[in-house]
Design a protein that fits this description.
Elements lengths: L6 H14 L1 E2 L6 E6 L3 E4 L4 E4 L6 E6 L10 E8 L11 H4 L2 E7 L5 E6 L4 H4 L5 E4 L1 H5 L4 E3 L23 E2 L4 H6 L20 E6 L2 H4 L6 E10 L1 E2 L1 H20 L1
Antiparallel strand pairs: 1-14, 2-5, 3-4, 4-13, 5-12, 6-9, 6-13, 7-8, 7-11, 7-12, 8-10
Helix pairs in contact: 1-7
Amino acid sequence: MIPIKHPSKLGIGLVAYLILHSSLAMADFIPFEIRGTPIINDSGTQVEFIIDNPGDKAALGSNDINGATLGQITHLSIDRLDDVARFTPGSGPATGPYLNFWITDGLGNFAVVANEPSNPAFQALYNDGYSLNFADLSDKAAKLYENADMSWLPNNGIGLTFADLASFTIQAPTVSELLAGWAGLGSGAPRELLTNMAYGVNWVFGDTLANYVSGDDGYIVANARAAAGIPEPATWLVFLAGIASIQRLRRKS
């Protein structure tokens, strides 16, 4: 066996390995209807959302980063392919879609946190779509929806930024939890019409004609992605085994 002269360096290497092999694989997003009669045309490489009626609402959702905290988000992106020049600069249709998350405290409380394109501070992040990390979101106003009881949130949910919510977990409620419901849960909550399947992170299209109407051609998007720095279970095992080896080496030295 070749002696290891510097076990501390091995520890550094294992930490680097852990970081590089964390669950940063891009999430899969699924198109779904939320409310009304939005039209969804999914070609496999891009998705068109046609919002023709007041209240129509649809989304691309993913559960692949459920279990991460908001503060662990490393990447959120989507490409917008339709012609936004037909919309008023800075308006919802020109800077959509908007982004929201289901968050929980792990004690049975859920809410949706969002920042919409109508927020001027968020509009500056738009560039033919979005490419974001948590640092981009951290100082932006966090709008909270889908729960009338905000007592479990900092400052009762008032005047918060995403930074104030960094420790809360991204997690969609289960179908049974959504069917049971709670005060404040509305028809616009990001859950699939009829099935009540919900997704932890959502790119949302539609809601009101005044803010988010697209019409035909609709919103055309591609390459929806999300990632968070959660080490994979197998990676944790490698890391912990390495630490144990280092401790044994130190005891022998």
